[in-house]
Amino acid sequence: MKEDAAYQTILDRAEGPINETDKADLQQEMGFDYRNALGEALFAMITCRPDISFPIIKLSKFANNPAREHYQALKNVFRYLRETIDLGLIYWRRTTQEDTMLQPSEIPTTFHKKCEHPNNKSTKLQGSVDSDWATDAETRKSISGIVFYFAGAAIHYKTKFQNIVSHSSTVLYCRVHRYIY
To answer: What is the rounded CA–CA span in Å between residue 49 and residue 154?
Structure first.
Protein backbone atom coordinates (compact mmCIF):
# COMPACT_ATOMS: atom_id res chain seq x y z
CA MET A 1 0.00 0.00 0.00
CA LYS A 2 1.30 3.43 -0.83
CA GLU A 3 2.58 5.31 2.20
CA ASP A 4 2.46 8.85 0.87
CA ALA A 5 0.22 11.33 2.64
CA ALA A 6 -1.94 12.05 -0.43
CA TYR A 7 -2.92 8.40 -0.80
CA GLN A 8 -3.57 8.06 2.94
CA THR A 9 -5.86 11.09 2.73
CA ILE A 10 -7.77 9.47 -0.14
CA LEU A 11 -8.29 6.35 2.00
CA ASP A 12 -9.35 8.38 5.03
CA ARG A 13 -11.86 10.48 3.10
CA ALA A 14 -13.34 7.70 0.94
CA GLU A 15 -16.91 6.97 1.95
CA GLY A 16 -18.50 3.60 1.46
CA PRO A 17 -21.98 2.90 0.10
CA ILE A 18 -24.90 4.30 2.04
CA ASN A 19 -27.45 1.49 1.83
CA GLU A 20 -27.19 -2.30 2.02
CA THR A 21 -28.02 -2.81 -1.66
CA ASP A 22 -25.10 -0.64 -2.74
CA LYS A 23 -22.82 -2.47 -0.26
CA ALA A 24 -23.83 -5.82 -1.73
CA ASP A 25 -23.34 -4.52 -5.28
CA LEU A 26 -19.85 -3.24 -4.45
CA GLN A 27 -18.93 -6.54 -2.83
CA GLN A 28 -20.25 -8.42 -5.88
CA GLU A 29 -18.32 -6.13 -8.23
CA MET A 30 -15.05 -6.49 -6.32
CA GLY A 31 -15.44 -10.27 -6.06
CA PHE A 32 -14.75 -10.82 -2.36
CA ASP A 33 -16.05 -10.07 1.13
CA TYR A 34 -13.95 -7.25 2.58
CA ARG A 35 -14.21 -8.33 6.20
CA ASN A 36 -13.31 -11.97 5.49
CA ALA A 37 -10.31 -10.98 3.37
CA LEU A 38 -9.22 -8.50 6.03
CA GLY A 39 -9.43 -11.26 8.65
CA GLU A 40 -7.22 -13.52 6.55
CA ALA A 41 -4.68 -10.74 6.09
CA LEU A 42 -4.82 -10.00 9.83
CA PHE A 43 -4.04 -13.66 10.57
CA ALA A 44 -1.05 -13.52 8.20
CA MET A 45 0.12 -10.28 9.82
CA ILE A 46 -0.01 -11.72 13.33
CA THR A 47 1.53 -15.10 12.57
CA CYS A 48 4.26 -14.46 10.02
CA ARG A 49 4.07 -11.18 8.09
CA PRO A 50 4.70 -8.16 10.35
CA ASP A 51 5.64 -6.15 7.25
CA ILE A 52 1.96 -5.69 6.38
CA SER A 53 0.92 -4.40 9.79
CA PHE A 54 0.57 -0.76 8.77
CA PRO A 55 -1.76 -1.31 5.80
CA ILE A 56 -3.83 -3.92 7.63
CA ILE A 57 -4.30 -1.70 10.69
CA LYS A 58 -5.16 1.21 8.42
CA LEU A 59 -7.69 -0.80 6.38
CA SER A 60 -9.24 -2.29 9.53
CA LYS A 61 -10.64 1.13 10.37
CA PHE A 62 -12.97 0.81 7.38
CA ALA A 63 -14.22 -2.74 7.97
CA ASN A 64 -17.82 -1.66 8.67
CA ASN A 65 -18.29 0.38 5.52
CA PRO A 66 -15.47 -0.04 2.97
CA ALA A 67 -15.37 2.05 -0.17
CA ARG A 68 -14.00 1.02 -3.56
CA GLU A 69 -10.62 2.53 -2.62
CA HIS A 70 -10.41 0.30 0.47
CA TYR A 71 -11.21 -2.81 -1.55
CA GLN A 72 -8.51 -1.86 -4.06
CA ALA A 73 -5.95 -1.21 -1.31
CA LEU A 74 -6.71 -4.62 0.23
CA LYS A 75 -6.29 -6.24 -3.19
CA ASN A 76 -2.91 -4.54 -3.44
CA VAL A 77 -1.88 -6.00 -0.07
CA PHE A 78 -2.74 -9.49 -1.33
CA ARG A 79 -0.81 -8.83 -4.56
CA TYR A 80 2.17 -7.83 -2.43
CA LEU A 81 1.85 -11.04 -0.40
CA ARG A 82 1.68 -13.13 -3.58
CA GLU A 83 4.74 -11.44 -5.08
CA THR A 84 6.82 -11.77 -1.90
CA ILE A 85 5.84 -15.31 -0.95
CA ASP A 86 9.41 -16.58 -1.41
CA LEU A 87 10.96 -13.81 0.68
CA GLY A 88 11.40 -14.13 4.40
CA LEU A 89 13.47 -13.31 7.42
CA ILE A 90 16.89 -14.92 7.24
CA TYR A 91 18.79 -15.29 10.48
CA TRP A 92 22.47 -16.14 10.24
CA ARG A 93 25.74 -16.11 12.10
CA ARG A 94 29.34 -16.06 10.96
CA THR A 95 30.49 -19.06 12.99
CA THR A 96 28.72 -22.22 14.10
CA GLN A 97 28.34 -23.24 17.69
CA GLU A 98 29.50 -26.59 19.06
CA ASP A 99 26.13 -28.11 18.21
CA THR A 100 26.40 -31.14 15.91
CA MET A 101 22.93 -30.53 14.49
CA LEU A 102 23.98 -27.21 12.93
CA GLN A 103 25.90 -27.40 9.70
CA PRO A 104 28.22 -24.57 8.64
CA SER A 105 26.62 -22.41 6.00
CA GLU A 106 27.39 -19.34 3.97
CA ILE A 107 25.69 -16.00 4.45
CA PRO A 108 22.81 -15.93 1.93
CA THR A 109 23.95 -13.92 -1.06
CA THR A 110 20.47 -13.17 -2.41
CA PHE A 111 19.50 -11.43 0.82
CA HIS A 112 22.56 -9.21 0.89
CA LYS A 113 22.45 -8.35 -2.79
CA LYS A 114 19.04 -6.77 -2.19
CA CYS A 115 19.84 -5.01 1.05
CA GLU A 116 23.04 -4.70 3.03
CA HIS A 117 21.75 -4.43 6.57
CA PRO A 118 23.94 -2.52 9.06
CA ASN A 119 23.55 -5.33 11.60
CA ASN A 120 26.17 -7.65 10.14
CA LYS A 121 27.31 -9.15 13.43
CA SER A 122 25.09 -11.84 14.84
CA THR A 123 25.81 -10.85 18.45
CA LYS A 124 24.79 -7.22 18.06
CA LEU A 125 21.24 -6.11 18.86
CA GLN A 126 20.16 -3.08 16.87
CA GLY A 127 16.96 -1.06 16.78
CA SER A 128 15.30 1.48 14.53
CA VAL A 129 12.38 3.82 15.03
CA ASP A 130 10.37 6.02 12.73
CA SER A 131 7.17 8.00 12.88
CA ASP A 132 4.94 10.14 10.77
CA TRP A 133 3.44 13.40 11.86
CA ALA A 134 -0.32 13.61 12.34
CA THR A 135 -1.33 11.82 9.13
CA ASP A 136 -4.50 10.26 10.54
CA ALA A 137 -7.16 12.57 9.12
CA GLU A 138 -9.75 11.94 11.85
CA THR A 139 -7.73 12.09 15.05
CA ARG A 140 -4.56 13.87 13.79
CA LYS A 141 -2.55 11.39 15.84
CA SER A 142 0.87 10.25 14.72
CA ILE A 143 1.89 6.67 14.05
CA SER A 144 5.20 5.37 15.36
CA GLY A 145 7.01 2.19 14.44
CA ILE A 146 9.84 0.36 16.12
CA VAL A 147 11.88 -2.65 15.04
CA PHE A 148 14.72 -4.59 16.66
CA TYR A 149 17.19 -6.66 14.63
CA PHE A 150 19.33 -9.58 15.75
CA ALA A 151 21.36 -12.02 13.66
CA GLY A 152 20.53 -10.18 10.46
CA ALA A 153 16.72 -10.01 10.69
CA ALA A 154 13.88 -8.50 12.70
CA ILE A 155 13.00 -10.10 16.03
CA HIS A 156 10.45 -7.52 17.24
CA TYR A 157 8.24 -5.05 15.37
CA LYS A 158 5.50 -2.75 16.59
CA THR A 159 3.44 0.12 15.25
CA LYS A 160 1.02 2.21 17.25
CA PHE A 161 -0.93 5.42 17.30
CA GLN A 162 0.51 7.92 19.74
CA ASN A 163 -1.69 8.58 22.76
CA ILE A 164 -1.62 12.34 22.32
CA VAL A 165 -1.64 14.69 19.35
CA SER A 166 1.81 16.12 18.64
CA HIS A 167 2.06 19.78 17.77
CA SER A 168 5.51 19.45 16.22
CA SER A 169 7.72 16.70 14.86
CA THR A 170 10.42 17.53 17.42
CA VAL A 171 8.12 16.76 20.33
CA LEU A 172 7.09 13.49 18.71
CA TYR A 173 10.71 12.48 18.11
CA CYS A 174 11.60 13.11 21.76
CA ARG A 175 8.66 11.03 22.98
CA VAL A 176 9.45 8.13 20.66
CA HIS A 177 13.17 8.34 21.41
CA ARG A 178 12.46 8.19 25.14
CA TYR A 179 10.21 5.16 24.54
CA ILE A 180 13.15 3.13 23.24
CA TYR A 181 15.27 3.62 26.32
So the answer is: 11
What is the tens place of the pLDDT at every residue in 77-121? 999 999 998 777 777 665 555 555 555 555 555 444 444 444 455
Cα angle vertex 51, ends 63, 49, to 5°? 80
Per the CB < 8 A criterion, the answer to whether 146 and 180 are in contact is yes
Rounded Cα gap, residues 41 and 49, in angstroms: 9
Distance, CA of 1 to CA of 179 (rounded, Å)? 27
Q: What is the pTM of this model?
A: 0.65
CA dist list (Å): 34 to 3, 89, 114, 158, 181: 21, 28, 33, 24, 39
Q: Using the predicted structure, report yes or no on whether residue 22 has a pLDDT greater than 80.
A: yes
Q: Which residues contact 61 (CB under 8 A, 6 or more apart)?
A: none
SS3 90: coil
